Amino acid sequence: MDKKQWQAEQAQFNDTSRYNDIVDAPRHVSRAHLPMTGRDRAGQFAPFAALTGYHELLAKTAARYANKVYPTEEQVQSVFDFFHSCSTGERISLTYFNGQSGYYDQYQGQLDHVNWNKQEAFFKDGHHIPLLNIREAGREEQNGNQTGNSGSD
């Protein structure tokens, strides 16, 4: 999504002033039907729950993400600051949460670019990692040592 499209959507969907006349209006209560239970109302917002295997898929995905530690705001900012300071072609070593395996993995690669709209780091070998999944990152020196760490605590 380009910036112009994003601004147009923000202007269209964040302006609720057209509905000010109905926001506080009393809602209709049917005389013909009993009010729906909270459970039934909630069921209307989960239309995929009736599909075969849906709950198993949710449980499998939840198990994969059980090991993920969600970063604090400071950790996220630290990782963002680190990637802002990086340049194309720089060798980077990092620890990140791999959504496929459900565990933290180590990765070393040459940075290609960072897509700030998608918040993903892209590497020369085609690997791309969401910045929010990165726990630690540092620059690799010529001798393989790591410097400039950020993100952990």
Number of helices: 5
Report the uncertain regions: none
Structural class: alpha+beta
Strands of the biggest beta sheet: in what spatial order?
A: 4-3-2-1-5-6
Write down the overall mean pLDDT: 87
What's the gyration radius in Å? 23 Å
The run of helices and strands is: HHHHHEEEEEE
Terminal CA distance: 34 Å
Binned, the helix content reads 25-40%
How many DSSP-defined strands? Answer: 6
Task: Give descriptors for this structure.
5 helices; six-stranded antiparallel beta sheet; 153 residues; elongated; single chain; alpha+beta
Describe the structure.
With 153 residues, the chain is α+β, with helices and mostly antiparallel strands. 31% of the residues lie in helices and 26% in strands. It contains 5 helices and 6 strands, in the order αααααββββββ. The chain has a 6-stranded antiparallel β-sheet with strand order 4-3-2-1-5-6. Strand 2 and strand 3 (120-123) form a beta hairpin. It is elongated. The mean pLDDT is 87.
Task: Indicate the topology.
Blueprint: H1 3-14, H2 20-23, H3 38-44, H4 54-64, H5 73-85, E1 91-98, E2 103-115, E3 120-123, E4 128-130, E5 134-140, E6 146-150
Antiparallel strand pairs: 1-2, 1-5, 2-3, 3-4, 5-6
